[in-house]
Design brief:
Keywords: Signal. By secondary structure, the chain is α/β, with parallel strands linked by helices. 29% of the residues lie in helices and 15% in strands. A seven-stranded mixed sheet has the order 1-2-3-7-4-8-9, sandwiched between helices. Strands 5-6 form a two-stranded antiparallel sheet.
Length: 329
C-alpha cells in the first residue's frame, strides 16, 4: 500500500510538470496564457474550457502568480467568477482543481503504476461558476520569484499581491467584469479571504479601475484565530452529539477559560478523555468514515486518504461515557 501511494504521489508530481511544460518553457517575463484542451492521463479532449497563465504582481522582484481558470460549463457570460484560494499556506491550487471543487479527479482504484488517470467530476463547482484556481502565496505550486527577496512573504503581502493579481487578471479578461465576483477558499485561506475582500471592497469605494462586481466571500472550514479555533472543537462535538452532556459539563468545570496549550492537569485529563471519544471520527466530515494509513502513525498531519477500503468508525468501541444520554451506538 505504501509503495502504491508513493507511486501515485510521484505520478501526480509528474503530471503537474507536464501540465505546465509549455508555459514553463515560454517567455515568463510577460503575462502568458495558454488554453489547455488535453491533459496527460485524461482520455480525449477536456469537456470544459481551461486556461493557465502567469500574472506579475511584483515587477521589482519578478514575482509571478500562476493560475488555472476554468470557465463555467453552463453560462460563462453570466455565471459568477470565483477566486479559489487553497489553504496550507503554500498548497498548490491544483489540489482545489483535482481534489476539492474542480472538474477533475483522480481514479485511485485503477492505479497500479506510472501516470495516474484523470476523470471528469460531474459535481464540480464549475458547473455554475467561472473558477480561478490561484497558486498563492509566491512559492506555492508554480508561482515563483526571480529573486530570493521576492520569496519572503507573509499574510499581508499575500493579500496585497492577490489584490494586484485580480486587477491585472481582469484587465486581461474584461468580458467578466460584470459577472458577480466571490473570493473563496478553505483552511488557511480563512486568514486571507476576508482581508482580501475588504481590500477589494475598499478599492471599489475609491473608484479604482477596473471596477469589480464584488459580492462577498465564501470560506469553508477556515482558520480564523488559534485562540478560538482549537477550543471550538469540544462544544462542536457536544452539539453534534459526539460527546454526552455529562462529559461536556466536566469539560466546562475542568477547563473553563483555560483552553490554551497551558492546561491544568484536570483540563488535560478531560481533553484526553474527549480525544478518546472522538477517535475514529473524521473531523472534516463527521458523517463520513475516517480514512487513514497504518504507516502514518497517530499524528493528525499523517492522516491521508490512502486506504479507501479499510476505513471504519468502530462505533461499538465507544465507551458509555462518550454517548449521548438515552442513545445507543
Amino acid at each position: 500500500m505504501e509503495d502504491r501511494s508513493h507511486g501515485l504521489a510521484l505520478g501526480v508530481s509528474f503530471l503537474l510538470l507536464l501540465i505546465v511544460a509549455g508555459i514553463a518553457q515560454s517567455d515568463r517575463e510577460k503575462n502568458k496564457t495558454t488554453m489547455v484542451s488535453h491533459l496527460p492521463g485524461f482520455h480525449g479532449p477536456l469537456p470544459f474550457s481551461m486556461e493557465t497563465g502567469y500574472v506579475e504582481v511584483d515587477d521589482r522582484n519578478g514575482v509571478r502568480l500562476f493560475y488555472y481558470f476554468v470557465q463555467s460549463e453552463t453560462s460563462p457570460a453570466e455565471d459568477p467568477v470565483l477566486l479559489w484560494l487553497t489553504g496550507g499556506p503554500g498548497c498548490s491550487a491544483f489540489s482545489g482543481l483535482a481534489y476539492e471543487i474542480g472538474p477533475l479527479s483522480f481514479q485511485p482504484d485503477s492505479y497500479t503504476d506510472g501516470l495516474p488517470e484523470l476523470v471528469y467530476r460531474q459535481d464540480s463547482w464549475t458547473k455554475v461558476a467561472n473558477v480561478i484556481f490561484l497558486d498563492s502565496p509566491v512559492g506555492a505550486g508554480f508561482s515563483y520569484s526571480a529573486t530570493d527577496q521576492g520569496y519572503k512573504s507573509c499574510d499581508t503581502k499575500a493579500v496585497d499581491q492577490t489584490a494586484i493579481f485580480l486587477t491585472k487578471w481582469y484587465e486581461e479578461h474584461p468580458q467578466f467584469l460584470l459577472n458577480p465576483l466571490f473570493i473563496a477558499g478553505d483552511s488557511y485561506s480563512g486568514l486571507i479571504a476576508p482581508p482580501l475582500t475588504f481590500q477589494v471592497a475598499k478599492g471599489i469605494e475609491m473608484g479604482d479601475k477596473p471596477l469589480l462586481n464584488l459580492k462577498g466571500y465564501i470560506i469553508g472550514n477556515p482558520v480564523t484565530d488559534r485562540k478560538f479555533d482549537s477550543p471550538a472543537i469540544v462544544p462542536y462535538a457536544h452539539r453534534m452529539g459526539l460527546i454526552s452532556d455529562e462529559r461536556y459539563e466536566i469539560y466546562r468545570e475542568s477547563c473553563g477559560a483555560d483552553t490554551g496549550m497551558n492546561r491544568n492537569i484536570q483540563c488535560k485529563n478531560c481533553h484526553d478523555a474527549i480525544d478518546k471519544c472522538l477517535k475514529g471520527i473524521n473531523i472534516h466530515h463527521i458523517l463520513e468514515p475516517e480514512c487513514s494509513s497504518e504507516h502514518n502513525g497517530n499524528s493528525d498531519s499523517g492522516r491521508m486518504l490512502l486506504d479507501y477500503g479499510n476505513a471504519e468508525l468502530g462505533l461499538s468501541d465507544i465507551s458509555s461515557e462518550c454517548r449521548v444520554s438515552g442513545q445507543e451506538t
